[in-house]
Amino acid sequence: LALAEWLEYQQEVSWVNYPGLKSSKYYDLGQKYLPEGQSGVVTFGLKGGFEAAKTVADETKLFSLLANIGDTKSLIIHPASTTHQQLSDDEQVATGVSKDLIRLSVGIEDLADLKQDLKAAFSKI
After folding, report:
1. 45: helix, coil or strand?
2. What is the CATH number of the domain that holds 78?
3. Residue 2 CA from chain centroid, whole number
């Protein structure tokens, strides 16, 4: 939740999707069904679109560029250029993948270190 809240205030970020955020359309459902926490998976979009998102995913050092989730190490992926690259633009949209989307699976690293890693990657766009 803390990383999702931080992302909401970053100038490079256009949107954040995490059910624990009060700004989320899923907040009430998250509180109802997952009152102890809503997982370590966060998605967000970057104002620079496809190229910005791909750059951020490629430039992080602490986050590992992997498609799986739920690891003890933090993971990052840009689905439009990796797991969903074989789909047409319309098919990507139908599956909920936008060009600017980044998915994080947050592990056990220190929050300050994760923020610093993302800030450093944001500086490359």
Report:
1. strand
2. 3.90.1150.10
3. 13
Average pLDDT, the chain: 95
**Block residue for tokens 């766009």:** 125
* 3 state SS of 42: strand
Measured distance CA(84)–CA(113) in Å, rounded: 29
Tokens 């990052």 belong to 76
Domains: count for the chain: 1
What is the layout of strands, in order, in the sheet containing 13-17? 13-17, 41-46, 101-105, 75-77, 64-65
Does the global pTM surpass 0.90? yes
Domain around 104: 2-122
Partners of 64 in beta bridges: 75
| Per-residue pLDDT at 50 | 96
C-alpha pair distances (Å), 71 with each of 1, 5, 6, 115: 17, 21, 21, 18
- Helix or strand or coil: residue 55? helix
